[in-house]
Amino acid sequence: MAPSRTEKTLMAKDQVDSNKLHIAMFPWLAFGHILPYLELAKLFAQKGHRISFISTPRNIQRLPKLPPDLSPFINLVNLPLPSSSEFNLPNDAEATSDMSREQVPILKRAYDSLRDSLTDLLRSSKPDWLLFDFAAYWVPDMARDINLRNAYFSIFNAASLSFIGAEIPDTRTEPDHFIVPPKWVPFPSKIALRRFEVSKIFDDLSGGDGDVSVVYRIAKSLRGCDVVAVRSCWELESEWLNLMAHILGKPVLPIGQLPPTPYAGEVNDSWSTAKEWLDLQPKRSVVYVAFGSEVVLSQDELNEMALGLELSGFPFFWVLRGHSVELPTGFEDRTRERGIVWRSWAPQLKILGHESVGGFLTHSGWSSVVEALKFGIPLLLLTFTNDQGLNARLLEDKMIGYSVPRDEIDGSFTRESMAKSLKVVMVEEEGEVYREKAKEVSPIFGDMGVQNKYVDEFLAYLKSHSI
């Protein structure tokens, strides 16, 4: 007897469901990593795949609320760190934002200690794939022990990956080795750190703080994994993606730029207040200033930045959270009519999307770059730490961002150079190329059709290469 239409429908549904994957995700304990991983988890969930999103309890609690239609597909899994006393972690510290930069190596060692508990969790839950982050360089060996396919998902772009972790062993042992492009880059490149940038992160790069170095963690992750997924796209970085695939001899797949998608309950009073002020400003006249949750300005940096904003004459919206240093005397009084100093959480994506915003003064963190370029906002770059310098070189090279002139040794800048740079990016003829380029690349950073194409291609690879 032939199956009925209802039976055919159920059979088709079972067949489709059998093609869905169970993907575990294990990001590094920094919200600049956790949130892009969660964005990718949402995109997987939209396509019906089941996600086990693994992090520590306090980080799980601080995640934005998932949309109701996606929450059934994303299981938030708590994996507790050892007791604070075991690693001398500050109380309740489970992310880099909970501690000073000097304490982050302790967090990495605590993270490394999760290997056994993660192994037990994965052995019992049996996902099809594990996506892991750079810090968990030990995952490929662990995954092979339990017959689990694994992908290193890098929130760093391909140029940064190529610069940092393409070689084992890495022969760069001195700061000067990092201020020039690596020997393995065969084409003309400006991707390198500046001297003042290296001085801030050399211990991280080299392992001089007694920890396993960032260079080694990334290189080991790249070499050990089954496939590399990169927060990037062919339209921006084809030469770097091809170089990585050539060096590693394995697939290096762009995952798209992961522009933020809505979470539940995002509209709040903060946006209402900010919008009220932005609505009063002329179109494309406002400089938005924000440096993420972990950059802390020195008093000199704060002074020169404030006085540069004042000198530029532009309206500004400056997000200044968690700073104990003081603004220059009289600054807020003198700029009250044309500037906002915002001292709490700011709805950055909504601000950048407002038509009054004409430029973004940023630390070059890639998530902030993606959010701005989604709306075609030109970038003024002022780097501080981590991969920000490499991001800035890529943006400079592509004529998408313009960097504030700095002293090469100590990274200092002046109010005059800040004001001049703002004028270049916002209005001067010299900066027209940056304004036009930001508009030109907007689709590859913000178009969800482009984003979905990359996710579909990646999922097709995962399906065809599952065990």
Automatic annotation (TrEMBL):
Membership in a protein family: Belongs to the UDP-glycosyltransferase family.
Pfam families named among the record's database cross-references: UDPGT
Family matches, as InterPro entries: UDP_glucos_trans
Coiled coil: none
Keywords: Glycosyltransferase, Transferase
Protein name in the entry: Uncharacterized protein
GO molecular function: UDP-glycosyltransferase activity
